[in-house]
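User: Predict structure, ligand 6-diazenyl-5-OXO-L-norleucine.
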Amino acid sequence: MNYQKIINDIYKIVSKENNSGSLASYIPELSKIDAEKFGICLTTTDSQEFHIGDSCEKFSIQSIAKIFSLIMAYRHIGDVIWERVGVEPSGTSFNSLVQLESDKGIPRNPFINSGALVICDILISHLTNPKEDFLKFMNTISNNTAINFSKKTVHSEKSVGYRNIALCNYIKSYGNIENEPKIVLDLYFNICSIKMNCKELAKACLFLANNGKTLSIQEKILNSSQTKRINAIMQTCGFYDESGEFSFKVGLPGKSGVGGGIIAIHPNKYSIAVWSPKLNAKGNSYRGMKFLELLTTRLQSSIF
Ligand code: DON
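Assistant: Predicted complex:
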């Protein structure tokens, strides 16, 4: 398979088209990014890497980090995790409050903000140094010590974090947050602020395409059944109220972030990270979605 040629061709096509959407201006720090940045990296389970564009430039991975926090918590407490957070697509926006009342404080899934806050609460209850441990985990899965939080982004998000503060307090009122909301929110904002480039991100997620095992140090991060579950939640919930659309057009498990990144997994084949900061109305990268749609169309290969 000539992945490099295919990636180059699609990159050219998408770059020539109109770049629609807008930056995530609700987080001031994210509104400063160059909207025309565009990077891709595809890394395969047989250790090949193909990239183009701004693939070495770090960006704010935002909600993509919710994959890593979920996996960390899942490794710690196992299947009881699903008593605190569901596995159903919400059909609502990533920061919605509406379902929490009827669901009595149990978020529909771990990828909407409410669910990710509960996951952060679990990490705080089970780890001695949650932030340091999170970075150590990132180091383990990617064999890379250069992954860190962005203080600027944390500060920027905290300064406008009213919606997440409301979500965390509301869940706490139902008893599904054990720790102080301020501490839970601090971990949440830090995790969202992680900066990575497409190469680092594709590599960090490759174990999800490799039955839960990292390629670099052959460490089992998850067993096959757990890996299937994470990919299943990415498939059904990774794009909020656009998860059906992503499944329909791309046909791979994936996860987006408001920094404009998308990671997608083809089990047993590859992981691919795409970054283009302009977002569509649902908060997902406009060019990222377009690129991945063309990729699986051209490769004639998806999980379906
Ligand atoms: O909490 C927020 O609003 C952001 N830190 C993360 C949202 C996000 O990335 C949603 N993804 N598309």
